[in-house]
# Entry
Amino acid sequence: MRRLIGAWIVIVIAFGVGCKKQASSTGGLSGVVSLDGSSTVFPISEAVAEEFQKQNPGVRVTVGLSGTGGGFKRFSSGETDINNASRPIKPEELAMAAEQHVGFIEIPVGFDGITVAINPQNTFVDLLTVQELKKIWEPNSAIKTWRDIRANWPANPITLYGPGTDSGTFDYFTETVVGKAQSARNDFTASEDDNVLVHGVAGDSNALGFFGFAYYVENRDKLKAVAIDGGAGPVTPTNDTIIDGTYQPLSRPLFLYVRADAAKRPEVAAFIDFYLTAGRQLVKEVGYSPLPDSTYNLVLGRFRAGTVGTMYTDTSKRLALEERLTTIR
# Structure
């Protein structure tokens, strides 16, 4: 009996030590961190969530995929802590958040270059100008075949793939290329899931589509990126051309929007801190362009200070990201 009692005490002590070790390794964190929104930002947040949970097994991080606009609806109604966004928040989304008394912290996390892709079997398209992209995608477009774009191209019909209307990528592309957000022809295959668009282009020699750079990088053996001429000559999307801004006009920052009340919870604060420190290297690993360290440090300071609101109330100002971070509060 004494031996049994002694053994039980040893087990209890060992269990207690084990629990203390686990509590130490997790920092005592527990709870759920919920994200939704952009399919473009999804690969970054998914990778960061996976690494964060390895170090903090007491925290569960969920990452949804309903598009930037759809994510903002859930975010403003209090269903999620964080919204992934591939564009700045819109005025109507600001109003929606205000109506629900939702304050938020705006956090840039990386750069993306919207990639215009074709099937590798397409050997005649070497580049497209922004004006040609506009003719292809504008409402009531007369472009039905490749020859409608250039007379020396074949008369094969074009099959188009693009993000759905809840996508921030769709908003940014249409505003930048067509001239008005949400303005585009309606005879294309649309999806909020960029993987659907990738498979569509990869399976059709006459296809053309656009989506986030990471989805091209992940599938570069199945796709061909088209060089875009924004007026200064054709430029192909790469990490370097996206970061230095030469891939114009389709380079743009990517964001997290964190509910101000959620940011006060230890597990959410720790997740964002991890995202902006250890998570920096994951941005590049999943195929996007990380911010310079100096910019990440400014963003981290913005989050830790709890700076609420958007830097993009006036989008007519063509300010670099660091300028916005240092001059707009």
